[in-house]
Specification:
Blueprint: H1 2-17, E1 32-33, H2 38-49, E2 59-67, E3 72-80, E4 92-102, E5 108-117, H3 123-129
Antiparallel strand pairs: 1-2, 2-3, 3-4, 4-5
């Protein structure tokens, strides 16, 4: 009986040890670094601020930007903003997508959309999904 129990535990442990962490970006993107122009920075900050409880309190630091090869620029950085209680939550990593758009007046501009903010306690998933944002 002990042998069966020991054999079962060994199989259980061996099965758990075989799982590997996926280190590729979730979307499988091939990225290349791009310069963060004032227009891209402004669009990224505006796109990010729409998700915050107190957007006026946001302290945003942009660290890098990448072209994902699909006419979208991935902007990475960190943000610290106030929560509902009025206290700063601590610096969190973020990613926001920025796309070149044509405005109604015919000129071109940038639009920030689809922001993703890593919660302060769990940046591991964020860095697995966006390894270029290290």
């Amino acid at each position: 009986m002990k042998r069966i129990l020991v054999a079962g535990l060994c199989l259980l442990v061996a099965g758990c040890a075989g799982s590997a962490v996926h280190k590729e970006p979730v979307g499988g993107w091939q990225t290349k670094s791009v310069e963060v122009t004032p227009e891209i920075e402004s669009a990224a900050k505006e796109g990010l601020k729409h998700t915050l409880k107190d957007p006026d309190s946001a302290k945003i630091s942009i660290s890098s930007a990448f072209d994902n090869g699909q006419d979208v620029i991935i902007v990475c950085g960190s943000v610290n903003a106030k929560n509902s209680y009025g206290g700063y939550v601590g610096s969190s990593l973020f990613e926001v997508s920025v796309m070149k758009v044509k405005k109604t007046d015919g000129s071109e501009g940038y639009l920030g959309f689809s922001p993703f903010i890593a919660t302060t306690g769990s940046p591991a998933f964020f860095l697995r999904a966006y390894p270029m944002c290290k």
